[in-house]
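Entry type: protein chain
Record version: 2
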Amino acid sequence: MDTRSSQATHPIGDNEARRRNAKRVSVTTTVLRAAILLALLAAVGCGPRGVSAPASTPTPAPVATGDYPDYGYSPDLSWLAGRFGIAIRGSLCTYVVIATHAGVPWGGKFALRAAPGMLDGVHPGDMVVVHGSIAKSTARDCGARYYEVAKIERH
């Protein structure tokens, strides 16, 4: 019996062979991509570049002296008192929440804009007093008005 004639009478067999070959090509492509990715990672490396200094423990923020409320602000906004917080909303946002109830101006919080390292000694949940001034711009990605930090103290 001629096998070519039996294949011609079974078009489903041809379709099945094509489908199996397509699956093999798909698997081969996926394996090849994974091998290339692993080779690139091995060549480039995943760890830090060069020798880095050991991570230092940040110095705690100084403690505020004076009579500040737990939550609040001065009439001229030269200081804010509240709870320090961090959120990731597309980018890293640092806040001071100045009120715990609704209906407070500025939504009850400000996004903090500070010099590098200034906020290192403060941790989420810390009660703080922030000295500085309100900025004219709003942190769109953080959803709050910016407050330019001149000094931050634990409270």
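Comment: The longest helix spans residues 11-44.
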